[in-house]
Write a structure and sequence with these properties.
The chain has 139 residues and is of the alpha/beta class. It is built from six helices and five strands.
Length: 139
């Protein structure tokens, strides 16, 4: 199962869900938002299941094969404070393969990433998800 995590308005998560469902149509996608607006956006984009909040991230991270989202999902208090320490810890400790998108936002700057366009970052992430899903199918 691929778990997509997003916060705020869910715009990145929405793009991720749509791209994953297009490129890997058989993938099971769980969308988890830190708030209901983010969750709703990802559900409208085609997620198979959706949930909202801290506990949903903790539970989902424990059962996911792949977790994808902005890099802030592993940084406590990031994404304007929507990522709690418990959420960041759950994602960080998960046995899932993590595909983190290097957005330079909310006082977190990833050196060496330059100013890549969001669409290019999404496509790169989907490529990594496809590789991880293929690896998971082989084991």
């Amino acid at each position: 199962m691929i778990m997509v995590i997003d916060a705020q308005g869910g715009g990145i998560g929405k793009q991720l869900v749509a791209a994953v469902k297009k490129e890997i149509p058989d993938a099971s996608v769980l969308a988890v938002g830190t708030n209901s607006a983010a969750t709703a956006a990802m559900l409208r984009a085609g997620a198979d299941e959706a949930a909202t909040g801290e506990n949903a991230i903790v539970v989902g991270a424990a059962r996911a094969d792949v977790i994808v989202g902005p890099i802030g999902i592993v940084i406590a208090d990031s994404l304007l404070g929507e990522i709690t320490p418990r959420m960041a810890l759950a994602v960080s400790r998960s046995r899932a393969k993590r595909v983190l998108i290097p957005f330079n936002h909310c006082d977190n700057v990833i050196a060496g990433t330059g100013e890549m366009r969001t669409g290019d970052l999404i496509q790169s992430a989907v490529g990594e998800i496809a590789k991880a899903a293929a690896d998971e199918g082989q084991s």
